[in-house]
Amino acid sequence: MIIEIALGAGAAVLVVLIWQGVNIAPMVFFGALIYLLYHFAGVKGGNKKFAVVESGSTTGLVKFKQIGGQQTAKKELLEALDFIRYPERVASMGIRPLKGILLVGPPGTGKTLLAKAAAQYTDSIFMSSSGSEFIEMYAGVGAQRVRQLFEKARSLAQKGKKKSAIIFIDEIEILGGKRGSHSSHHEYDQTLNQLLVEMDGMALDQSVRTLVIGATNRADILDGALIRPGRFDRIVQVDLPDVDARHEILRLHTENKPLSECTDLQKIARETFGFSGAHLESVANEAAILAMRDEAEKITQRYFADAIDKVIMGEKLERKPDSSELWRVAVHEIGHALISETIRPGSVSTVTTTSRGKALGYMRQMPEKDSYIYTREYIEGQISIMLGGAVAEEVVFGDRSTGAANDFQQAVDAAKKIIAAGMSQLGVVSLEDVPGRTVHRVIQKIIAAQEDRVRLLLVPQIELIKEVADILVVQEKVSGELLRESLKAAQEKAAC
């Protein structure tokens, strides 16, 4: 109403000035300039519409039982949330309620879901935002939005007759990076300072208990003042799921899908080492899409295998190599697979010449167990598997191709891990301080030793390579079981 009155009065004044012959062009120019500044950097620039989800809503929020895995993260988070849910018990023990919880982990591991479940568990107003929403080119806007976020959380909680509010800030490293790292842009520092002030001002006896939950995968760049006790009191690690957690996540995401009786979710969980919860949800979804394409009534194991390949490598490509290239690709991939089976029997899941992404073919391994630390023997075995494709080409064709370039890069990276971990002839060293020529010489020595090893393994099996490659060219995909049967038959024949 006030805006309409002001606009009407302004228009009337302009009409009078024009009638009296006054030049109003400068007034219009400065008025437009003031409006633009108001629009982009003034009150309107600070009025950010943050996402709000009420705990009683049937959509938006989730429950902890709907989140697969992450048992340790759930336990730590639930303990912290009990400070909000049972304030009397906390006060009787003389415990200071936590002001902030920082969720740290790789993308797709469920940090946002955990924050939403926290709001559901505590019956709180849930306000969601991203660190990038607070950063603007105009000074003061970010700090204003931080104030607005906390004020709005409290006012909405009071309006909804809630006793608590949870403020979730995703990608908090953008907002909370170390001060002074943005020397040309002090807006970052001002915005972070305002967040620190707001968290300090969260009084313990407020009618609305406020908890800030931050999420990041770059905790190393956060400002020390932000993650000290009294602000973010608890840091909760949200890691990639292990095999049991992956099985639970797959079970949750396939509850509403028509699975075939032969579908083995435990096997799928073993084959998806390193997948996040988001990846596993995508695998389940893509498997259903593939089944729908074929007009199948049930989702079988084959669709899940193809879905895993699609999530890792991308969609199948229309381009097809010619017959000679296809034969070389088949030999290359069988080389990888035979070395993998020789070093770790039962490790090959699939070998294919189907083009996906930038790869003309690939061999997918199935780890025996989830491993988080590696010995030199294991890494050298991985280097041998990486070299298997190029050496197989050399054994069969007498030369190599550019298709092994990515394999060589991975082998070099693996060799660097051996050096960095102090397992090379250099002993315990810093890669940054060792001369590049020395590092290069040790890398060459490590890779050359494995190349000789691979050659000794593949030369006696040249006929087996050609035999299985022939099958692969025709069928486009060979299972690990078929490869192991062929390898076993060849070994029995050689023994006779």
Task: Let me know the largest β-sheet.
Answer: 6 strands, mixed
Unreliable stretches = 41-46, 54-59
Strand content: 5-15%
* Average pLDDT, all residues: 83
Given the structure, what is the number of helices? Answer: 19
User: Which fold does the CATH topology of the largest domain refer to?
Assistant: Rossmann fold
Distance between the termini: 98 Å
Number of strands: 9
Order of helices and strands: HHHEHHEHEHEHHEEHHHHHEEHHHHEH
Describe the structure.
- The protein has 496 residues and is α/β, with parallel strands linked by helices.
- Helices cover 54% and strands 9% of the residues.
- It is built from 19 helices and 9 strands.
- The protein has helices at residues 2-19, 25-41, 43-46, 71-85, 87-92, 111-122, 141-159, 172-175, 187-200, 243-253, 265-271, 277-293, 301-313, 323-343, 376-397, 405-420, 436-458, 462-475, 480-495, and strands spanning 51-53, 100-104, 125-130, 164-170, 209-216, 232-237, 348-352, 362-365, 477-479.
- The strands form 2 sheets. Strands 1-3-4-5-2-6 form a 6-stranded mixed β-sheet, with helices on both faces.
- It is elongated.
- 37% of the residues are buried.
- Residues 41-46 and 54-59 have low confidence and may be disordered.
